[in-house]
């Protein structure tokens, strides 16, 4: 029996043309249209178009500065590495890449798996920390695509996985290696470790998302692994809509730091993308240096050779057909569809 593993991701335009970026932005804003309250689909599409037009020029400029986003090729490389790992484990599975906002879309990946005649599907979001508009939304897109095809196929969904022990070691060792290479002592009182997490509208937290809890606990564990007693946390918010977002903003955190230098760890990301290469490396660096701070940003370990093993571990129970609880999977709290599994839920609910 062949299992199709749909590796779910965000997507970003590799070529920053106006058409590509405008379509990309429209899809994002339409996907989050409910943040501004009840409205018709026509009104939501018009509002999404307006927001996209307002943002497109500045985002094109960001992409041009970084030479186009590397997210998509990095995601494809991760899926290829996962396929190799699954093959080495003698697991009958085929990996597909599906993006929320750029080609190949999630629906494209599902359709390809359908054409290939796989016998079951596993949805695996490559988001380190489970969020409503990323992890949960991408899985919902996958199941909607299956329904659109009227395809009667078993579907397994994996959500939160930041507690995977090897993933924790990847992130902690990556931070320490970078600090060593730069000659930095993370325990020095004049060096502030700042975790930068992708922001989220508080609407999602009010609706039951545990994203902020996951960010807090993961940062605590990373600091403990590194022997760092004190650190800061800030969120990268996108103020395109006038709605409440997670606080504090990372810009405020950095400009108020009582230290000589900051080391920024982009804790929410498993790819280099505009949020790291532009928002952090250019915009946040500029703000830090304006207040006299030396600025360091930890690279995202997207190509760590251990990561494919993490991904394979996450899908192995479903591909090999054994009880996922053996690998400590439990029913997800953020997406309560029966059978949606994660590593984050407490043992007793």
From TrEMBL:
Its EC number is 4.98.1.1. GO terms for biological process: heme biosynthetic process. The keyword Transmembrane does not apply. GO terms for cellular component: cytoplasm. Catalyzes the ferrous insertion into protoporphyrin IX. The gene is hemH. One of its GO terms (molecular function) is metal ion binding. This is Ferrochelatase. It comes from Haladaptatus litoreus. It is found in: Cytoplasm. It catalyses: heme b + 2 H(+) = protoporphyrin IX + Fe(2+). Belongs to the ferrochelatase family. It holds the Pfam family Ferrochelatase. Fe(2+) binds at residues 198, 275. Pathway: Porphyrin-containing compound metabolism; protoheme biosynthesis; protoheme from protoporphyrin-IX: step 1/1. Its main location: cytoplasm. It is an enzyme of class 4 (lyase). The keyword Ubl conjugation does not apply. It comes from the Archaea. Keywords: Cytoplasm, Heme biosynthesis, Iron, Lyase, Metal-binding, Porphyrin biosynthesis.
